[in-house]
Amino acid sequence: MTKIWKKYILYFAQEHVDHRVAEFESLVKLFSLQFRCLTDHILKPFWIVEFPNDEAALKYSSRSVCLRAIFELWSHGHTAPEFHKRLGAYVDTHKSEVAGYFKPDISFKITVESYNKHFSQREKIDKIETMDYLPIEGPVNLKSPLVEWWYIEFWGLDPTAVPPVPDDIMFGRLLAQGQRHLIKELSLKQRKFIGNTSMDAQLSLLMANQAMVRDGDLVFDPFVGTGSLLVSAAKFGAYVLGADIDFMMLHARCRPSRITQKVRDKDESVRSNLKQYGCADRYMDVVVADFSNPLWHRRLCFDSIITDPPYGIREATEKVETKGTAKENTRTPDMAHYPSTSHYSLQHLYTDLLEFASKHLKMEGRLVCWLPFHRDDYSEELLPHHTHLQLVANSEQTLTGNTARRLLTYEKTKEYNNDETELSARLTKIPTPPSCNEFRQRYFNNAIESRQERRMRKAEQREIGRLEAIKRGKVPADARSKKCDLNKARFD
Ligand SMILES: C[S@@+](CC[C@H](N)C(=O)[O-])C[C@H]1O[C@@H](n2cnc3c(N)ncnc32)[C@H](O)[C@@H]1O
């Protein structure tokens, strides 16, 4: 028997676009949904996707943070005549299913959405009136309609090259909104306990979706900080546990990061964050621990590990030191001084993280973590890999002109074995790109370079302006020309 599919329009927010596919793939896997994607251009905010039924579509929208809304597709065309022909045909062929929406006691609303082109209210009403052949009998209700249709025109992605006619015209019945309301609900602006490196609500939710967090899961963040990643996991029903090397941070004794706050409130903590969002029952604990010296029982098993390790930019990448090596500046051997902490290189940190995940994740459990990169250095071969973990998603978030971080999702594919003979075989292979070793150093060097470049560009612009002015017979003021000469001399 051939399968019957239903078509839907997925309307995405044009934010964190690179994470869209990864989130979609994670959620269809989480709910074991069958689908067929009919859109080839994934950067478009509108996708046409087939699911077997509304139930599957609703499951997807019940978790997606990238999704604005999902519509049951009624018509789709590249030209207006094609669109109207298909809409008329849809209403005719689906008479029994759609009749209920047109009844006199069913209030309705039609929203006109145009992407990359602005229309006045009058123009929008004109567009609605082109569909006067729809046999709607109910009253208009703009506030709380029983049925809501959307007429959508897509005018391309480039605001500097808007096409003369829309690329796509779509019409559909609103089925559900995505979960973008959670971004506001969990916003850091109103959160009780935050720090300089707290992860924003949207990315935290995306990470929890990447980890395929389910109700009742056990989730761990080994670099927990203020617990933002635990908040989103708990919001999706997970029991959460965290660790951090920084006692002051975990106990909210560090300096407040809000400019308006002089001292921290007594009740600031990761636990109070969870309480704020009604997830206090999902809080297990947080412990002060150095990740390079794991303290966990070997049989402890997590459903997922979601974490944002330190890159050394806004927080130190440190580990607790042992009495192995004395400080270099020791004057005599008997006056040896041992450092309490030492630098924890990104390379060692990711080696430990992947090994830890391979040991403590359940089979098919996921590790979701960020890795910083210099954009020029990035290549897929530089990503950390491990024999027991498979990289299933990798999406980028730009940080500055030169730097980005990648959200990596690994899935455990092989049971961990303590067998000595296997040890060397499963060793994490993390290459040593400059991006991994010296991220901090290059981050700041680049900042200096680009400041110099910026000054040089501005000096050149001023010089061009000055010459132009002279050409037009205008003599620049003395002080300005002196400054130009000075800048020129500085950069020549
Ligand atoms: C990027 S922050 C994490 C921020 C966190 N996601 C949040 O929302 O607040 C990295 C954290 O790793 C911690 N850290 C640094 N080195 C560590 C180590 N060796 N073991 C455990 N935690 C460490 C830092 O104290 C910092 O809180």
From TrEMBL:
Family the entry assigns: Belongs to the class I-like SAM-binding methyltransferase superfamily. TRM11 methyltransferase family.
Catalytic activity of the protein: guanosine(10) in tRNA + S-adenosyl-L-methionine = N(2)-methylguanosine(10) in tRNA + S-adenosyl-L-homocysteine + H(+)
Protein name: tRNA (guanine(10)-N(2))-methyltransferase TRMT11
Pfam families, A to Z: Tmrp11_N, UPF0020
E.C. number(s) listed in UniProt: 2.1.1.214
Keywords: Cytoplasm, Methyltransferase, RNA-binding, S-adenosyl-L-methionine, Transferase, tRNA processing, tRNA-binding
Gene3D superfamilies: Vaccinia Virus protein VP39
Subunit structure: Part of the heterodimeric TRMT11-TRM112 methyltransferase complex; this complex forms an active tRNA methyltransferase, where TRMT112 acts as an activator of the catalytic subunit TRMT11.
GO biological process: methylation; tRNA processing
Subcellular location, record wording: Cytoplasm
Function as written in the Swiss-Prot or TrEMBL entry: Catalytic subunit of the TRMT11-TRM112 methyltransferase complex, that specifically mediates the S-adenosyl-L-methionine-dependent N(2)-methylation of guanosine nucleotide at position 10 (m2G10) in tRNAs. This is one of the major tRNA (guanine-N(2))-methyltransferases.
Keyword S-adenosyl-L-methionine: yes
Domain Ribosomal RNA large subunit methyltransferase K/L-like methyltransferase: 190-319
Main location: cytoplasm
Entry-linked InterPro entries: DNA_methylase_N6_adenine_CS, RlmKL-like_Mtase, SAM-dependent_MTases_sf, TRMT11, TRMT11_N
Molecular-function GO terms, alphabetical: tRNA (guanine(10)-N2)-methyltransferase activity; tRNA binding
One GO CC annotation: cytoplasm
Every tRNA (guanine(10)-N(2))-methyltransferase TRMT11 N-terminal domain range: 6-180
